[in-house]
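go over both lines:
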Amino acid sequence: MALKRHKTGKKEKNDEGMMTVSGHLRELRNRIAVIVLVFVAAVVFFITIAPRLVVFFQEMGTRYGYEFVFIAPQELLMQQFRLAAICALITDSPVILYEVYGFARPGLSRNEKSTLRIALVLGAFFFCVGILFAYFITLPFMLDFLISLKNDQILLGSIKASISIASYLDFVLLMFIIFGVMFEMPLLSVVLSRFGLLTPNIMKKIRPFAIIIIFILAAIVTPPDVVSQIMVALPMILLFLLSTLLCRIFYKKRQQKEEEEEEESEEGTE
């Protein structure tokens, strides 16, 4: 019986100690299962508090004089499910990144492992900082400006600011995602520099184009006034400059380490 189990059982590693294809596929399946289970659990949790989340976001707009409506019978309910799914995806993102790291870990060096572990923790932190920046600084300015348009002397008294709750939540979530991703820029530059995929010369060459793209993006996602565009563009430019500085520092460290390893290998051959 023991011999039979040995023959029918799936071999995880070959004779050289390397994991077989079936072993890799089984590991991948298990990691995907963990990601899906965490996402489903997060969706269930956020659905239970979705009405409170809608009220939480709504109160920010209400402070500036917005009145919210839903223009389709199912709109409010669907927005709650959509909000729960987005929040669940954000919550599941660290799990996704960790499982990807865990799957790729055997092929990484010790320095690459430590870099990615730190990046996982700091990535979640900076994403939250970006969301807080949008909530406390950017969104109040933008909402106040947009509601002030109805106070124009020509429009005064003729147009009421009754906003679809779906449109409002789309706007708020877009700002959160933009600033959350934007605040990941310095961390991304550090990781790519440590892996040798990003150099200071590349950052220097793309800087003029990056600044132009930043102002174009700021003009698209903000109202047509200079203050709002600067409120979005200035942090992005500062983060890009910080990313350039960090790239220069960590790429230089990588070069120094490679030179030291080459000298050690040359001394060893002698």
About this structure: The two ends are 57 Å apart (CA to CA). The longest helix spans residues 226-269.
